[in-house]
Design a protein that fits this description.
By secondary structure, the chain is α/β, with parallel strands linked by helices. Helices cover 41% and strands 20% of the residues. The chain has a seven-stranded mixed sheet with strand order 3-2-1-4-5-7-6, with helices on both faces.
């Protein structure tokens, strides 16, 4: 397997030295940085909102979210490599207790003892084995009116806007099935293929 293929294979769950390199690529790629900022802007975060990012990766969006709220922020990721990189990138917020980084998957949500104002993810949904179960778990951690936002940009060879549109339809169906409403889909024109975000409320 070539280094490129080994690197791409790491994006689902980075680990080891190649996983560290994958995290660096995520943080450095201009399309990733633009997509993170775009989604955080779409969230319209309130001054004291309590936020959760699922699949926080190296912590780019966490940094942006922390600039928009004085409330607590939680980053969840099943890769210890990504938790470490997110902690390094946001060390001051971790030290002050404003940012809590949790190593694990969506099963960790049930143990969290309060609801979030907003739950978001960026290029995570394609790795979820059961999207309906995932949105049901998120629904349980949001109060009435709470926001869920899911961004996705297809990265596979030959990806098109249509691929992103199909994913938006699947996400929307799973959200409706689990009790979310007021859905809308936003688009970001980036190279090589547009990104989309589906946003809804509990």
């Amino acid at each position: 397997m070539t280094l490129r293929r080994r690197l791409v294979a790491q994006f689902a769950r980075p680990r080891g030295p190649i996983g560290h390199l994958a995290g660096w690529v995520m943080a450095a790629r201009s399309s990733n940085r633009r997509r993170n900022r775009w989604l955080v802007d779409l969230l319209e975060i309130g001054n004291e909102d309590f936020l959760l990012e699922i699949g926080c990766g190296p912590g780019l969006a966490l940094t942006l979210a922390l600039q928009r709220t004085t409330g607590p922020v939680v980053g969840l990721d099943h890769s210890q490599v990504m938790i470490s990189q997110a902690a390094s990138r946001n060390r001051q917020a971790v030290a002050s207790g404003r940012l809590d980084l949790v190593h694990g998957g969506l099963d960790r949500l049930a143990a969290m003892d309060r609801c979030f104002d907003t739950v978001y993810s960026i290029n995570v949904v394609q790795f979820l084995p059961d999207q309906t179960a995932a949105f049901a778990a998120i629904h349980a951690r949001l109060p009435p009116g709470g926001v869920v936002a899911t961004a996705y940009m297809p990265r596979h060879k030959g990806a098109t806007r249509q691929d992103a549109g199909h994913m938006a339809e699947r996400i929307g169906a799973a959200m409706i099935q689990t009790g979310f409403g007021d859905l809308r889909t936003e688009w970001l024109d980036v190279v090589p293929v547009p990104a989309m975000a589906v946003i809804g409320r509990r």
